[in-house]
């Protein structure tokens, strides 16, 4: 949804405007909070505009995502070309999702944010089941659609922003996890799907990290393997959907 | 997915996933450990915590997002 390219753009703009020396000096907690706030604002606005309107269509969603993605990417591509090669090397380091170099001071902040989101989310658990029946059904069953969807989208963007700011952009991993969770539980209830998705994600990340560290001896990056698998699942899902 | 007890199946799957997750976490904390435990455990603990946090955030956000957008890529459709 243009999220990854926005992240790239923010990082590029920071280094472009202030120079790598200043960026490295910024207090990481402050930088983290600012990045999160920016990503949340952008996505909340975008999602709200897209989904709360009259009729949501998948094509519109995908198109807007592509357009925004291209827009942000070409902006950052332009800035990257003008950059000093040394500064560009610093930037490249930031732009790859890395599970090895997470700043422990950011952990507490993000844990608190995620905790708050979870508390709000738990109260919506049953409304979610109704929402998955579709917009018209949900409204006729008495869900305050506009309000609930806005809340959920804000929660989603907070979570995405936190994970992006912690490790960098991860594209297909969530899709892989969600698809697997739906498939394995064979059940639409969020009380089952959500924990299943969380557990699968933990297995992939932690288990993957173990395999990576003990068998491949850090020779490759976990994010590359995960994105590779996730990309294949994504293509498979699209093909399967297209076949019907 | 037309099974007689979809809830039971889901619970079973959850239990199995939980076991797998616990095993991988234990493996992450203990495998290939050389040196003193008082150094290794906090060092890996921080990494484990961040991995858990990221996994949680990504999983929940994607599932919620798919629910709101009516699951365009869910395999159940």
Short description:
The complex is a heterodimer of chains A (244) and B (77). Chain A is mostly helical.
The count of DSSP E runs of length 2 or more, i.e. the number of strands of chain A, is 0
Strand content of chain A: under 5%
Q: Which two chains form the greatest contact, residue counts included?
A: A-B, 74 and 51 residues
Number of helical regions of chain A: 12
Which sequence of SSEs, written as H and E, runs from N to C of chain A?
Answer: HHHHHHHHHHHH
- Range of strand content of chain B: under 5%
Query: What oligomeric state is this?
Result: heterodimer
Report on this structure.
The complex is a heterodimer of chains A (244) and B (77). Helices cover 81% and strands 0% of the residues of chain A. By secondary structure, chain A is an all-alpha fold. In chain A, helix 3 (28-51) packs antiparallel against helix 9 (145-167), helix 6 packs antiparallel against helix 9 and helix 10 (173-185) packs across helix 11 (190-214). Chain A is globular and about 60 Å long. Chain B is mostly helical and 77 residues long. The longest helix of chain B is centred in the last third of the chain and has 32 residues, at 37-68. Chain B starts with 5 loop residues before the first helix and ends in a 9-residue tail after the last helix. Classes of the chains: A mainly alpha (244), B mainly alpha (77). At the A-B interface, helix 6, helix 9, helix 10, helix 11 and helix 12 of A face helix 1 and helix 2 of B.
């Amino acid at each position: 949804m243009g999220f990854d390219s926005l992240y790239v753009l923010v990082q590029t703009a920071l280094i472009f405007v202030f120079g790598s020396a200043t960026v490295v000096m910024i207090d990481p907690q402050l930088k983290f909070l600012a990045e999160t706030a920016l990503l949340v604002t952008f996505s909340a606005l975008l999602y709200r505009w897209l989904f709360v309107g009259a009729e949501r269509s998948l094509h519109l969603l995908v198109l807007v995502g592509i357009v925004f993605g291209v827009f942000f990417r070409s902006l950052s591509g332009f800035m990257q070309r003008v950059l000093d090669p040394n500064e560009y090397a610093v930037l490249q380091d930031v732009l790859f999702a890395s599970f090895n170099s997470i700043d422990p001071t950011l952990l507490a902040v993000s844990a608190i944010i995620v905790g708050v989101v979870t508390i709000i989310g738990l109260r919506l658990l049953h409304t979610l089941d109704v929402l998955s029946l579709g917009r018209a059904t949900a409204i006729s069953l008495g869900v305050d659609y506009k309000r609930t969807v806005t809340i959920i989208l804000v929660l989603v963007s907070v979570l995405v922003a936190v994970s992006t700011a912690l490790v960098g952009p991860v594209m297909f991993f969530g899709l892989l996890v969600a698809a697997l969770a739906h498939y394995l539980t064979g059940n639409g209830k969020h009380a089952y799907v959500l924990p299943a998705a969380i557990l699968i994600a933990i297995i992939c990340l932690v288990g993957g990290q173990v395999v990576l560290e003990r068998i491949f001896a850090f020779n490759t990056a976990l994010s590359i393997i995960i994105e590779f698998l996730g990309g294949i699942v994504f293509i498979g899902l699209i093909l399967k959907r297209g076949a019907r | 997915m037309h099974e007689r007890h979809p809830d039971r199946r889901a619970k079973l799957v959850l239990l199995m996933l939980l076991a797998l997750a616990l095993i991988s976490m234990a493996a992450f904390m203990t495998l290939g450990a050389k040196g003193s435990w008082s150094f290794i455990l906090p060092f890996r603990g921080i990494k484990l915590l961040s991995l858990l946090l990221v996994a949680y955030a990504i999983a929940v956000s994607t599932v919620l997002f798919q629910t709101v957008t009516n699951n365009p890529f869910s395999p159940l459709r």
